[in-house]
Amino acid sequence: MAGSTLLNRTSFSKMTAVSQGLLGDLPTRDYSCKLRLFNAFAEPELRQAIASVGLKPGMRVLDAGCGTGEALEWLLPEVAPRGEVVGIDLAAAHIAAARSRLGPHIELLQADLLETSLPPASFDFIWCVNTLHHLRTPRCGINRLLRLLRAGGRIALGQSSLLPDMYFAWDSRLERLTNEAVRQYYRERYQVNERELAAVRSLVGVLRQAQLRQVAARTFMIERLSPVSPATEAYLLEAIFRQTWGPRLQPYLSNDDYAELLRLTDPQHPQFALRRADFHYLQSFTLVLGEL
What we know:
The chain is α/β, with parallel strands linked by helices. The protein has one domain: Rossmann fold. It is built from ten helices and seven strands. The two termini are 31 Å apart.
């Protein structure tokens, strides 16, 4: 979804084509490129979020929906030297990408979390980012995660873009139409309604319904101005402009609006958005924590 691309993470269910995840996730699905691009782009804010949760040396941490594994590298120093981090993801390609860059000191599992052999009450902290919106039954997923927590353990649910992203500070109309076109594309492709797509916004409610204690939320703003860094340009150009937007939005926009969108997202055009002096991008990242 528009900036909520995000991204992006895998659902936990090892499903058949009939019972695949809400957004089409299967063990064979691969969007590791998008995950790597997003993690490189948002690394400063994601590291800040990790630093804010109060991890302690010696803790055992699970990254539930670890994708290509970047967060595991950021989590590990927080619990070193005696702590341990474990990553689990449904997609085989994501685990393969994580294994190719992480050392043997980090355990990685390609598995369905709903049926994993991970022992109950074996983690002090669970980090679960950009994953919940892929699940058909988020409450069921949360309940399974909570079984893995020790008494007094905590869970952190992270999600990008609970607030609408700002791409074109100078043209809110085109930005709004583009974001709505993305939502319409998702509705038609995956046969999901607006409420299902928006369910992820209730992270606080999900944790309170699970009767967790000390539920708290914090939102970090990912803010970028021109000239943008190579990581920002790579993420916005490839993951958003080309893969999330691109030709698939043409049926949902007028000819004039689509032509304008093409100009703003074309690196060869003088009006390429990322090189405009007035380029100002905002994306939110919300982290909600609760204690068992």
